[in-house]
Specification:
The structure holds 2 protein chains of 2 kinds. By secondary structure, chain A is an all-alpha fold. Chain A has 12 helices and 3 strands. In chain A, a hairpin with a 3-residue loop joins strand 2 and strand 3. In chain A, helix 9 (297-308) crosses helix 10 (318-329). Chain A is elongated and about 145 Å long. Chain B has helices at residues 7-20, 26-40, 46-100; one strand spanning 4-5. Chain B is built from 3 helices and 1 strand. The chains are: A mainly alpha, B mainly alpha. At the A-B interface, helix 2, strand 1, helix 3, helix 5 and helix 6 of A face strand 1, helix 1, helix 2 and helix 3 of B.
Amino acid sequence: MPTYQDALAAEPSEFVAYAAEMTAAASDLATQQAEYGEKVAGINQNWRDTANDAFNGEAGTVAAHLTQVVGEITTAAGSLAAAGSQMLTECTLLRVADAALKAVGFDVQPAPLVTLGAAQRTAIAMAGPFGGLIEAALQAQALAGTLGLQTLTTLVNAADATAGAALSAAADLLKPLDDKTSAGDDDSMNKMAEDHSDGGDDSSEGSEEESEEEKEEEEEQTEEEQEEPGEEDQAGDPSAEQPTTPETPSGMEDLAQPETPDLDNPWDASELADPEDFSGGLAGGGGLGGGAGGLPGGGLSTGGAGVAAGSSVPMGAMGAGGGAALAAGAGSGAGGMMGGGRGGGGGRSEDENARESNLIEDPDEDVWGIGKAADDMYE
Amino acid sequence: MTVHMDVEGVRTGGTGLRALAPNSQAAPRRVERPAASAADRNRGFATGDAGRRWQTSLQTVASAVERRLTWQGDQVVGSADDAEANDVATGNRFAAIQNQIPTGATR
């Protein structure tokens, strides 16, 4: 809020000049808008497809924005010009009144407050018996002058407050356009251009290709999702979700159930407490591992979890289970398929193979009860 | 629908949009000095500070318009480039197919 001194020193004509430049700025922007429209029209003469439609939608947005901004600038300029003119008048009156009071000998304090000047007090003193009368008349003039200056100052303050609020509101109304710098937006029109210029084919063909690609991706995702649950079981707590009916070869239910070590660490699977107990299981386990390896990813996961459940699958299958679990733990679907394909031996690392070499296979002991000579194709 | 593009014409138009973009700054530049002068020569007036703020807002708006026009120019030029590249690729495909078809007397 300007004080009396501020109002005296003010140059409200600057506000008027500012408003005039605002109007000129609105003209600049209108010119810019017109040139923009010409550019867009020139582009449209040489371009016709859906990408061009999108471009025209964009151009329409910018043109509407420019129209709105030009209107807001014009409104703000008109408001500021009116307020500036009003303040210019009031401040001019204030200066004239101040000068007139000082011209007749009054002092004007910054309040504003008009007081008697030194010359007036001298005149009162020299007036003798009429001094009191003269002083009363001068004090009445001073009071009237004070009231007049205060009124004008109040008017200047009111005009300034109104103009300032209006200009602040106008500033708030000026909203910038959103930036279009994201990669997706950048690609949008280019893709449309590709669709329509790609051999001049119908756009539906491109969309069909896209839909086919999407279907393929969805199928791949579905397969991955089918594999992922088993992988997650392996990767997570193996004991939390164990299959209730692991695959058990027929005729093997009566075999002694070996102790299953803690399978939290798949590397511990081949380190058995007593290799003698399971020595015959290596060959059989290898066979099971190979069978499990032939299954899809889901089958692998089941086999690995079945071992973890302590089923009747001999410990020889642990290599396959561990290998499958290891492959599944690799994360990707392709990795799981590769681990499964390699079977009991292929999915193991060199360390595991090295440990497995400690197992002793006794060909005379048919632990499984299925190693009959007649069935051996190599004898 | 009709699909048509004069690649060079569109590319020139996009370049023109890019060149037009900086002109958006003319408006805020024009009022920059009057805004500062009005505020400096009218100390204590709320209108002076509001005028500065208004000029800043206009500057922001103009900068956004400049960026948008530049972006549109980039998109238009990019569309022209894509259309040209696709045309060349299609031509090459047809040429490849033509080379695969046996030529000579058929019967």
